[in-house]
Amino acid sequence: MKKISNYILIGIFALTLFGCEKYLDVNTDPNNPQDVTADFVLPAAQTSVAITMGNSYFNLGGFWSQYYTQSPTASQYKKMEAYNLTTDFFDREWSEAYAGGLNDLEIIRTKSTASGDHGYYLIATLLQAYTFQMLSDLYDDIPFFEALKGVSDGTLNPKFDNGADIYPVLLDRIDEAMTRYQDADDAGMEPGDRDLIYGGDLDQWLSFGNTLKLKMYMRMSYTSMANPTAVQDLLTVGNFITADAAITQFGDESGKRNPFYDVQYDFLSGVNQRASKTLFGYLEDNEDPRLAAIYNESSAGGQKGHPQGDYDNLDVKGTDLSEPNISATTPVFLMTLTERDFLIAEAEVRYNAGAGAQVAYESGIANSLLLHGIAGADSIYQAGGAYEYAATGDVESDIGQIMMQKWVAMANVNNLEGFFEMNRTHYPPLSAAPKGTEGAVGELTTSFASVLPEGKTPKRLFLPDVEIQRNSSGVTQVSNIYTKVWWDKK
After folding, report:
1. pLDDT digit string, tens, across residues 444-472
2. What is the CA radius of gyration of the chain?
3. What's the DSSP call for residue 485?
4. Contacts of 448 (CB under 8 A, 6+ apart)
């Protein structure tokens, strides 16, 4: 396990093609990975999670949420655009998630339990729950109950568990960690700036726990596991994050850059991702000032989007199209204030008769504008504005307004979250137009390059080959990527 100099990212990133990049060998001390203290492991664990979620999975979410499309004059992500992934496409990300962040966080949980450092236990448990939840949403079935046992008892072939069984246990773990910290007479060692996300502010981590719980309960909202009482209790207490949960310590120098930027721009020269006409057209049609913040102008000058998956149209050059506005110092966001706001807005509509939905909805847009550095644009969601909230009393119609804005707000911020919520709520809706035809403004376009059956879009990833081949517990590969995950019931 390599120490992170000054508690921020260091080391040269090892890069490979096809979106399978490996960063920062922070996973294993070849002598004794357990012979370290929790304060030493924490920044490495947080960095590992940020790099896993902020690079290849972030890129996947960008394409599959229709924020990005493949440039016609490049070819790196044609398979991703065509929904034609191989089963080994994300092997390295899977390995990093388990051998890196999740394993390191389990070491912290074990060591802090023994030492009584309840603040470290709180952070590790919450961040581990976040990571497990994201992976289960992406793969549906993942090793969980028997995962990470190798740390303590040598279990090397953990069985796979479904997200429907994992979620309740994660919620219990979150509650247990929060209660343990709050009930402790002595929280133990203070994390301070070893905590790269909240700088040791454990009250903010408690708020993160509540916000994560709200997110998970809303994921379950279309299932038989929906829990209105738990959501209403969270809304009543209202102790949600008041600052973005993010890794912000990136710099514009080798080994310290934002992981997506480091691969896509520094290594691959920024030739692949271009503005998808799906999001671009929606922003343009609504005269949304975020268009110029989410996308940079093309090399040829001006802003222009391109239909999703239309990379065989060689009449258009990549230099004619806008590209994602992500810099070397762009943070990796795990959870933001704007995501918090839209979770609250949806919860208010779904479980509280819409009482506080408009306030939270407007706050979500305001915080999205603020995150992009845009001031003086409040009129866009106020009376008469393009995004004025118009309560109808119909739950799904009102949620639709909220989710369209959440989809916009997740672009370049948490692309994967945009993909999950798109599948859960069906906003934006998928156009009924056949492949090769653009959807209307505010609709998803069936990728022009799609190899899936008509009307099908990605819902999950294949299980990684690296796990299938090495795990003798009897796990079998899924047959396709358009089978819905457990919470996708609408």
Report:
1. 999 999 999 999 999 999 999 999 988 88
2. 22
3. P
4. 307, 308, 309, 310, 311, 312, 435, 436
**289 touches 370 (CB < 8 A):** no
Helices vs strands, H then E, count in the chain = 17, 8
Residue 295: beta bridge partners?
324
Q: In the chain, where are the structural domains located?
A: 5-253+330-470
Instruction: Point out the residues of the chain with pLDDT beneath 50.
Output: 1-33, 151
Token representation of residue 126: 């919450």
Distance, CA of 331 to CA of 247 (rounded, Å): 6
The whole-number pLDDT of residue 3 equals 38
Give this prediction's pTM.
Answer: 0.93
- Return the pLDDT at 155: 65
Non-local (6+) Cβ contacts of 388 within 8 A are 381, 382
- Which CATH class, in words, describes the domain spanning 5-253+330-470? mainly alpha
How far apart CA 345 and CA 331 sit, in angstroms, is: 25
Contact 357, 349 (CB under 8 A): yes
213 near 234, Cβ under 8 Å? yes
Q: Alpha-carbon distance 324 to 276, whole Å?
A: 10
- C-alpha count within 13 angstroms, C-beta hemisphere, residue 305: 24
